[in-house]
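User: Please predict the structure of the protein below. I'd like the answer in structure-token form so I can feed it into my own downstream comparison script.

Assistant: Understood. Taking the following sequence of 168 residues as input:
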Amino acid sequence: MLRKVITKQPNSRMCLVCGLKNPFGLHTSFYELDNGELMAIFRPKEEHQSYPGRLHGGIISTILDEAIGRAIMIKSEGDIWGVTVDLQVRFKKPVPLDEELRVLGRITRNSSRFFEGTGELLLADGSVAADGSGKYLKTPLEKIADFDVEVQEWKVVCSPDDPGSFEF
């Protein structure tokens, strides 16, 4: 199925998942899709391994948590972020290193205080290597952390590699 990218979400300076200047980070890019889902693209490195050549399960959980949690930004009005209350992950296949991977996240339930979502980590061939579900507390950013947009370099950074559309 052909999907179109509507917009790209911001990255930061040092976040483990999206921090572009974190030498050990995943340097993940996040894209809002025409079907209301969020897609993350990243390429894990040797520093992210557990067994040789395999992505660590904690990193898999982290990227699923981030993709599901960020999906609320697609339709949220104002500055609402998600604080993870519960995260469940199922591991289905080994995940290789140094290969472009995609993660999809979506909101499945949205109430005044909480939201819930699901997501999948996809291998290069499109098969599901892991899936997850989570529950998040809606929280304004100023109640989570002292976050200075300029200091954290929270901005959209365009790349010639950004997809316009792709097929699943």
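That's the full token string. The longest helix spans residues 57-70.
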